[in-house]
Design a protein that fits this description.
The protein is of the alpha+beta class. The chain is built from 3 helices and 7 strands, in the order E-H-H-E-E-E-E-E-E-H. A hairpin with a 6-residue loop joins strand 3 and strand 4.
Length: 143
Amino acid sequence: MALKTIKMVQTFNAPVTEVFAALSDHETFGKICGINVTRIQEGAEQPNGLGSIRKLSIGPLPSFQETITDFKENELIEYKITQGSPIKNHVGRLSFSTQGDMSVLHYTIDLESKIPLTSGLIKAVLERGISQGLQKYAHRLAS
């Protein structure tokens, strides 16, 4: 089973503080990406920050949990799946920067499926769903 990597770059016509606030909030992030997300444990310093845990439910699949493992306001969010998923070695990293008046998000996900021969399919579904959600969110900000 091979580790797969998703790399997405999305620009937003909004300040990085606004984009970071939306994407760091678990429930808002879920709405943007079309995933049912609920915070089940607050972080030590911020509700959605370092150490916070969110539960994700995607369609008929069993729900699973992600834990925020690195958090630098307006710069970085990193998380990993910590419970209940057919995906192992799943680490997501959202890096935020400013380019002129625009915000730029570099979103990388590393993953590997526990089920043989499904990593590519999982990669494709995740990449399509998340990138479409981010594009729609960017379009709303531009309007």
